[in-house]
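Each letter names a residue; structure tokens follow underneath. Both lines appear below:
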Amino acid sequence: MVPNSATAVAGPAAGTHVTEHTVVVDAPADTVYGLVADVSAWPQIFGPTIHVEVLEEEADEQLLRIWATANDQVRSWTSHRILNSRTRSVSFRQVVPAAPVSAMGGQWRIEPNDDGGSRVVLLHDYSAVDDDPEAVALIERAVDRNSRAELAALKNAAEQDAGEGAAEGADAGDDRLRFTFCDSVDIGGSAEDVFAFLDRADLWPERLPHVARIGLEESPSDDGGSTVQRMDMDTRSPDGSLHNTMSVRVCFPDRNLIVYKQLRVPVAMSGHTGRWVIEPHGKGVRATSWHTVTLDPEGVRQLLGPGATLAEARAKVRRALGANSSTTLQHAKQFAENLHDRP
């Protein structure tokens, strides 16, 4: 059981609500602080986080755009952060909150324990539009649910990182739980046509041999320039078996970019995020599929047997995901080049 507690305290001003959540982590405070400070890994670590972009960065201050799930909806907001490595604290404040939130801020505090571990305190202060009681209750549930989930995930990631660090050796790279890889293809067509193929995932069962079924829901994102897609997809393995995954994608047509996070992952993984990137290249474009995967050691043993190594699991996951990505890229290439060659 995760040693996690939540305490609501009186707000400092009328209409402002304050909460405090804590967790004890069996990992050094510097390790934990590093995970909080580095937002690039947040979608892998924190379940609610779909995507994070650093909009501006100077010294110890950042302006972030964050997409995350809250009460089963995908929300997006801009947040300002101040990082203090000396005190191992990170203060944050939403610049443009998403309704029904009218203001949201808080702080991460990572405190070292005498036993070499650490204690993490996550503070939030928030208010609702017009101080509506129903909105306050909705925000309170979202903050409590996400804070508990984030602290549990941070504890797990920090303790895994600490364990890996203690076991590092000459070949430790093959035993890392988290790894990133990519596949690319050069296309003699337009970026817009390639993006259109990847964006219209609802047509994938007709266009891609490994996609058996897909359910797709699409809605505008809170940022005003992207769309959010929820995907429930069955993919077909070479042996004919079907595997179900659920994902959230954020699509940026103005940048020919799609980022995604799997909310339901295969048994050997605890996390899977990725992105489709389309960039100018020569007389055409280069389309690249990026994957970042975090393995689940227990799931690896369940799938491959008790004697399986993480290196074997990495290779198997790399082959499976790479094969599907490469197939998708080749069909996108054919689609875009056929359109390009039409008179």
Notes: Confidence is low (pLDDT under 50) at residues 8-12, 167-172.
